[in-house]
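Report of the visiting student (M.T.), summer placement. My assignment was to run the structure pipeline on a short list of targets and document each run. The first record concerns Na+-efflux ABC transporter, ATP-binding protein.
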Amino acid sequence: MLRVKNITKKFKEHIVLDNLNLELEKGDMLGFLGQNGAGKSTTFRIILGLLNPTSGTILFKGIEFTKKDFDNIGFLPEERGLHSNLTVMEELIFMGSLKGLNKKTIIKNANYWLEKFSVIQYTHKKIVELSKGNQQKIQLIVSIIHNPELLILDEPFSGLDPINVEILKEAIIELNEQGTTIIFSSHRLEHIEELCNKVAILNDGRLKAYGTITEVKNKLQYKSIVIASDIDMSYLKDIEGVQEVIQQKNVLTLKVKDEDTCHKIFQEVKKQKFITRFEIQEPSIKDVFLEIMNKKGSDTDE
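After the run finished, the structure tokens were exported:
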């Protein structure tokens, strides 16, 4: 569906993207992660044809991306932009027409999503009269009203309350289940892990991790053990293979290097009379992200 092939972008002598490679099949959902300034927005602008790469190619359905492919892509920018003096329906009709839809199709699609997002009552209200959260819903409808094959979402959950976050997540899942390929960036890493089947992590314009959620999580060899007990278990820090210990009240968290260390700790814990919790936790995407951000200049693993 989409291939980002050897993309490099320089501004004068500053390298913003350094030989970036990504590949998405139809129906993939990619979480695109990185600190501010990592190159995420630049990547989106290059995919959308808003910015030319210094070198490299964007392929869409196996051929080089051209302007005619724009109508197959939806984009929700981080910086929202609606025509504040238009009504909701006027805005959707205008934006849908730019994607080549006729008015009847636009109204049909618009009503479906307005109902889905519980904003159908605002159809004839001006954008400026809506709350920030409801404006964000309209902005998302603008990006999907033409049923795009590829949808790019830049910080889609920013500024939304928990209820609206769940509504938006449900819409993203529905679109993905219908076959829409989705790329989205978010600082809410739990959403990436919950929704995506693939993840890419950028640091200083270089791809540091890329693959399925499981593959990327497996970059970290360690596991965490959480033990809850009123008994002093601090002596476990002396077991070989324990890398880090965090004590919070009666909960002890141990970062250990491998499963053999987990087994050693379990054998020790079994000797105690009463333990309320013993849990082995796999690394999260957040753990991987923080590890990468703390290792500047490490080599790319793909």
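The CA atoms of residues 8 and 18 lie 5 Å apart. The chain has a mean pLDDT of 88. I thank the supervising group for their guidance throughout the placement.
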